[in-house]
Amino acid sequence: xxxxxxxxxxxxxxxxxxxxxxxxxxxxxxxxxxxTNECKVQTxxxxxxxxxxVIDANIDVDSTIGVQCTTGQTYDVGxxxxxxxxxxxxxxxxxxxxxxxxxYTIYRESxxxxx
Length: 115
Fold this sequence. Notes:
Blueprint: H1 2-12, E1 39-44, E2 65-69, E3 92-95, E4 101-104
Antiparallel strand pairs: 1-2, 3-4
């Protein structure tokens, strides 16, 4: 088997060197994609009220939610009431140690008119 292999290799080197032949062919290629309407939440910053002792005035903080949609797609952002016992969208409740709660409300804008 080895002799045959070497013989073929030796015989291959005796062939005349031929120039490489290059050719160009053109044609058509169909490319398709179907874009479906979709929205995704891309970012959401924490709503951090910080550290406070006695709360005797509103504590205003900002948070943002970033949404990306396909062109022309409309969307609404809805937030659940959270895990605080008895929470509603108008009065949310954070529950801390020993089941202590604190009420808070999330508004769409700084004038506090749209929940």
